[in-house]
């Protein structure tokens, strides 16, 4: 815009100079030449005016676009703030509700305390009954233990009169008494064993081998070569003792 103003002022000065020349005496050719120059200057000034109008229109268009953009931005801001306001109102409502609930709980607790103070105290009967049942269980356990000890005493060989000529069996080298089990190895040097000595309570199903004859399991016999070596060693030790 400043450049256009400078050009416009220069054209006005030129036109003033040409107008001064017209005041003097001129021939027809000079007059015609000056008039053409003035006409060109006027056309130039008109073009400068048109350029200024275009610049002003462009500025107005930019302002309108900016104004529309600002309106859209303001609408978007308002649209984004409405859900936030709703969420804030929702958050405040539960807080108020929770405060009310706390007040009601406090009131209920106060009412409960008042009722508990007014109500008579009754003795607790369930604990007594449970203590009686536990005492009965302990008594039955003691009775079972006594009966078991008595059975073991009855089965023990100490109460049986031992004949010195009676053969002995088992790992304990005692006479036959109570329930006994035989080893399924025909070459077993001991043959018969007391249930209590080999950790049995009932007779097992299938084959059963004693601790001296068994392998990895009570139902599996150890390798024959290993058994024969151990049998030879056992017989030698027995002969030395006798």
Show unreliable segments: 95-106, 119-131
Shape: rod-shaped
Spatial sequence of strands, sheet with the most strands = 1-2
Average predicted local confidence, pLDDT: 75
Helix and strand element order: HHHEEH
How many distinct helices?
A: 4
Distance between the termini: 140 Å
Q: Percent helix among the residues? A: 55-70%
Total strands: the figure is 2
**What structural class do you assign from the helix and strand content?**
mainly alpha
Number of domains: 2
Radius of gyration: 63 Å
Biased composition (Basic and acidic residues): 79-98
Subunit structure: Component of an histone acetyltransferase complex. Interacts with H3K4me3 and to a lesser extent with H3K4me2.
Keywords: Chromatin regulator, Metal-binding, Nucleus, Zinc, Zinc-finger
GO molecular function: zinc ion binding
How would you explain this protein's 3D organization?
By secondary structure, the chain is mainly alpha-helical. It is 66% helix and 2% strand. It has helices at 2-22, 28-118, 126-155, 224-241; strands at residues 180-182, 192-194. The protein has a two-stranded antiparallel ribbon with strand order 1-2. Helix 1 (2-22) runs antiparallel to helix 2 (28-118). The longest helix has 91 residues, at 28-118. It is rod-shaped and about 185 Å long. Residues 95-106 and 119-131 have low confidence and may be disordered. Belongs to the ING family.
